């Protein structure tokens, strides 16, 4: 059914809690943010593949055991594979 978002004129939209207002100088930034949000939503909708992810993590663990990867590198890559890197990493 949807929410009760404003469907009227500009002034009504300005009072809607879901409205994001910006000026033309900010439009490029807002479009970039919108694309990033859409990309993240799309990434979340991709089916999770346990076997391929598990295989990749196992390969990384082997590299860690051989001393090729540090523990930090292993953990960071594992989070990326599991799709949680953006929620944890700040760099």
Architecture overview:
- The chain is an all-alpha fold and about 90 residues long.
- The chain contains 5 helices and no strands.
List keywords for this structure.
91 residues, mainly alpha
Fold blueprint:
Elements: H1 10-15, H2 27-45, H3 50-65, H4 71-82, H5 85-88
Helix pairs in contact: 3-4
User: Helical residue percent?
Assistant: 55-70%
- Given the structure, what is the number of helices? 5
Beta strands, count: 0
| Uncertain parts | none
Q: Which sheet architecture does the biggest sheet show?
A: none
State the end-to-end CA separation.
40 Å
Return Rg in Å.
21 Å
What's the rounded overall pLDDT mean?
Answer: 79
Listing every helix as H and every strand as E from the N terminus to the C terminus, the arrangement reads: HHHHH
The percent range for strand residues is under 5%
Tell me the overall shape: elongated
User: What structural class do helix, strand and pairing data support?
Assistant: mainly alpha
Summarize the structure.
With 91 residues, the chain is mostly helical. The chain has helices at residues 10-15, 27-45, 50-65, 71-82, 85-88.
């Amino acid at each position: 059914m949807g929410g009760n978002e404003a469907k009227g004129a500009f002034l009504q939209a300005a009072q809607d809690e879901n409205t994001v207002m910006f000026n033309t100088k900010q439009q490029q930034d807002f479009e970039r943010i919108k694309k990033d949000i859409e990309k993240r939503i799309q990434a979340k909708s991709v089916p999770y593949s346990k076997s391929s992810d598990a295989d990749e993590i196992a390969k990384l663990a082997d590299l860690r055991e051989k001393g090729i990867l540090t523990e930090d590198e292993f953990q960071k890559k594992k989070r990326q594979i599991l799709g949680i890197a953006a929620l944890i990493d700040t760099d």
